[in-house]
Design goal:
The complex is a heterodimer of chains A (331) and B (296). Chain A has 331 residues and is an alpha+beta fold. Chain A has two domains: 171 residues, Protein Transport Mog1p, Chain A, CATH 3.40.1000; 149 residues, Protein Transport Mog1p, Chain A. Chain A has nine helices and 13 strands. In chain A, strand 9 and strand 10 form a beta hairpin. Chain A starts with a helix and ends with a helix. The relative contact order of chain A is 0.10. Chain B has two domains: 30 residues, no CATH class; 253 residues, no CATH class. Helices cover 29% and strands 20% of the residues of chain B. In chain B, the strands form two sheets. In chain B, strands 1, 4, 5, 6, 7, 8, 9 and 10 form an eight-stranded mixed β-sheet that branches. A two-stranded antiparallel sheet of chain B has the order 2-3. Classes of the chains: A alpha+beta (331), B alpha/beta (296). At the A-B interface, helix 4 and helix 7 of A face helix 1 and helix 6 of B.
């Protein structure tokens, strides 16, 4: 019995995100626990031809150091999600504009989901675990991969080809990945976008919602943050939930934000800002919760109360989930 | 941390004082605005600037550039105006931009080159380059730079600007990525580019006002503005351009949709680095040509 338990534990640890090691023998599927060889085989996820478009030239591979050679400053976005490798392939067809396939190996499903949430514009495309299509760009995530398929000019033909290509790529990624647990702590009702934005560092926070030039919330690659943008009639309010590795760091961030952002607060953790809206902050163990643009102080308090309860109710599960994620992320 | 920390609340404070002022909240630290003279910026537009989508009319480009430079420098003859910028002994680099969806148009590059030659600069002393400027002998020995690039939103700096166009002079561009490229203006001083730059041209023929995906581009967000913004102060030129981009975004999206991230490097170029003037009240904006849909 003890041996059986050890075997199960071994399988869970060695198969990151739950993929069993021996799955790699089947059908050209890319292994989620990615050895170097497996990662070099990102190309296996792409067909050589789709709807008359053929792969042209050599595939290009970029890592976190070289990505700027490919997509300039946008590379910072993928670096901020700890991305490991990008494969870029161009497809050409006579008389049609080129298609560009970018496959990002994000090394974890959390970050694949996260980088997908960076740019949520567009219609659901029904491909992968979540997807969007807009303006000649099809994006989706599945397992630990973020996939961007792009037509240099949008036409009916290129759109059809992008969707066909997306379906092929998604079918080659056999497994699905888990969304980060923290995302489920924010309410989904009245979200202005299809999901909240998941990220790690303050540069991405400022991208979606400018808070401060300095990193007053002490966000870094170890923190997990989720930003929900909510409709309230014609107005919007924002919920930011951050999970720190330690409660002590959360506490310091609470102090920093209170001092820098709400020095004029008349009651702890709640202030009316210059636009006559309300900002509130709560600290609960290793979580920080902030509401921006609340229409009233009572709305801010009630909303934060509800989410605090969710954190409380879920804390045991969350801790287990955290432990589980850490265990599985070991190589 | 800096002495006075800028937060969203500074933005809100300024925005609550005056419409549009919110965009300049990042300039709160500035002290130079009371001292500088007005920077002249020419916005010129022509309804016939494009022959088709993203294809400029070369003759119209030449005319627009001539009129803009002559007006900028108070000359009737464009060649005389160019002679105020260069002398025959100069070595001149035209800093272009090759970003494939919207590069600096060849028609604009050639219009500049033609007038440089008319002003007496030999052709062999004129170079046009973007990513190769560090290795290009013309740029290595340049006594004058002409800075010409298209306007577009940018994934990390908010906007691709004349200020940002000099990023290719640095060996490690990502060294300037911090805080959404807040301190791009330092490039102009660090690499001795400020004094050499005699003219900045922000090409507004078909700007990109919104970007999507890793490549930050879709034809859907390109609009035919058919303009050029021309000036000697790069900050004033960019500040004018960003106001137009913000205006078209407001019009297109039906709501105030600030650039993501905000193009604060423009305003910090003024208030933190003293490269030029970003405050519209300190800019003399001269509008020439086609007025329909001018947005400013």
């Amino acid at each position: 019995m003890k041996k059986l338990l050890l075997l199960v534990l071994f399988i869970l640890i060695s198969g990151e995100k739950g993929t069993l090691p021996f799955f790699g023998f089947f059908g050209g599927e890319l292994m989620a626990n990615g050895s170097k060889e497996d990662k070099d085989n990102l190309a296996n996820l792409l067909p050589s031809e789709i709807n008359g478009w053929r792969a042209e030239g050599k595939d290009e591979i970029y890592d976190s150091e070289t990505i700027f050679d490919y997509i300039d400053g946008a590379g910072e976005v993928y670096r901020s999600y700890n991305f490991k490798k990008l494969l870029a392939r161009r497809y050409t067809r006579k008389g049609q504009s080129d298609l560009v396939a970018d496959l990002f190996d994000m090394d974890s499903s959390s970050d694949a989901f996260g980088v997908f949430t960076h740019d949520l514009e567009g219609e659901e495309a029904g491909i992968g675990q979540d997807s969007t299509y807009k303006g000649g760009l099809l994006s989706f995530w599945k397992d630990r991969f973020f996939v961007s398929l792009y037509a240099e000019q949008e036409t009916k033909e290129t759109q059809d080809a992008l969707f066909a290509l997306g379906r092929v790529v998604a079918s080659c990624i056999k497994r699905e990945g888990e969304k980060p647990g923290i995302v489920s702590l924010l309410p989904t009702e009245n979200l202005a976008e299809k999901t909240a934005h998941y990220f790690h560092n303050h540069m991405i926070l400022n991208y979606h919602f400018y808070v401060s030039e300095e990193n007053i919330l002490f966000l870094d690659q170890q923190t997990e943050a989720v930003l929900g943008i909510y409709k309230l009639g014609k107005e919007k309010f924002y919920l930011l939930l951050i999970r720190y590795p330690e409660a002590e760091k959360a506490s310091r961030a609470f102090g920093s934000f209170s001092k820098s952002y709400m020095p004029d607060a008349k009651e702890p953790g709640l202030v009316q800002t210059e636009d006559l809206k309300w900002t509130g902050i709560r600290l609960r163990k290793n979580f920080l919760l902030i509401i921006f643009n609340a229409p009233s102080d009572s709305f801010a308090k009630e909303t934060m109360d509800k989410i605090e309860k969710r954190i409380g109710y879920n804390k045991d599960n969350l801790n287990l989930s955290l432990l589980f994620e850490k265990t599985r992320s070991k190589k | 941390m800096t002495e006075k920390l800028i937060t969203r609340r500074d933005f809100l404070r300024v925005a609550s004082m005056a419409p549009f002022a919110g965009a300049f909240a990042f300039g709160l630290k500035g002290t130079r605005l009371d001292k500088a003279e007005k920077a002249r910026v020419i916005l010129i537009r022509d309804e016939n600037a494009l022959v088709s989508f993203k294809r400029p009319n070369p003759d119209v480009m030449q005319t627009m550039l001539d009129e803009a430079v002559a007006t900028l420098l108070d000359e009737k003859d464009p060649v005389q105006a160019w002679k105020k910028l260069v002398k025959p002994s100069d070595v001149v680099g035209i800093k272009s931009n090759i970003w494939w969806p919207i590069p600096t148009p060849k028609e604009v590059e050639q219009a500049i080159k033609r007038r440089l030659m008319d002003a007496g600069v030999p052709e062999e002393k004129i170079g046009i380059d973007d990513q190769g400027v560090r290795r290009n002998p013309i740029f290595q020995n340049a006594t004058v730079l002409i800075n010409a690039r298209p306007a577009r939103t940018h994934h990390w700096s908010g906007m691709g600007t004349c200020i940002k166009n000099y990023i290719m002079f640095v060996p490690r561009a990502w060294d300037y990525h911090g805080d959404s490229c807040a301190d791009l203006a330092t490039i102009w001083k660090d690499y001795n580019l400020k004094e050499k730059t005699k003219l900045n041209i922000l090409v507004m023929l078909n700007p990109l006002f919104h970007g999507i995906g890793p490549h930050h581009y879709s034809d859907r967000y390109v609009w035919e503005y058919k303009g050029l913004i021309v000036g000697q102060d790069p900050v004033a030129v960019d500040s004018t351009g960003v106001r137009i981009l913000q205006a078209i975004r407001r019009q297109h999206f039906g709501e105030d949709r600030p650039l993501q991230p905000p193009a604060k490097h423009i305003f910090l170029a003024d208030t933190r680095h003293g490269l030029g003037v970003s405050d519209p009240s300190r800019i003399e904006l001269v509008k020439l040509g086609w007025k329909q849909g001018i947005l400013i």
